[in-house]
Design brief:
Blueprint: H1 3-9, E1 11-15, H2 19-31, E2 35-39, H3 42-52, E3 56-59, H4 68-77, E4 86-90, H5 95-103, E5 108-111, H6 117-127
Parallel strand pairs: 1-2, 1-3, 3-4, 4-5
């Protein structure tokens, strides 16, 4: 695999409107070896997803302008971004919501109040293709 392809595999797009959380998650994911880009609202997230083609998108549901459910639908309907794993990371959880999001193409749904950062990172690492393209620190 080329060095450019290897770098692309380590890109995470974090779409969340809370700057305190995005700063904390960006720092933790960076320490784990990821290149992290942040979008603070849905339209920006859609634009960056198509521009960057990240290895994984970490998506909140409560976003300004375009909410997370709509972002997920548009990502999955777009040929360029449809195959990118999308992990929903939100305060809003529940079995019915999780089923809806999974049926729309989410790879996983995690509650922000239920998962600590190291556990989130381990789950993200497990969801990425395991072809040896990148090495990440384990927590």
């Amino acid at each position: 695999m080329s060095p450019v392809a290897m770098m692309e595999r380590s890109i995470i797009l974090l779409v969340d409107d809370n700057p305190l959380l995005t700063d904390a998650y960006r720092a933790a994911l960076s320490v784990a070896g990821f290149v992290v880009h942040v979008a603070h609202e849905g339209r920006e997230g859609l634009r960056l997803a198509e521009e960057l083609l990240p290895a994984l998108i970490l998506l909140d549901l409560r976003l300004h302008l375009v909410d997370g459910v709509e972002v997920l639908k548009r990502l999955k309907a777009n040929d360029a971004t449809g195959s990118i794993p999308v992990v929903i990371f939100t305060v809003s959880t529940g079995d019915m919501l999780e089923e809806q999001l999974m049926s729309l193409g989410a790879k996983a749904v995690f509650g922000k109040n239920e998962m600590r950062v190291p556990e989130l990172i381990e789950n993200i690492i497990c969801m990425l293709p395991s072809d040896g393209a990148t090495q990440h620190a384990h927590y």
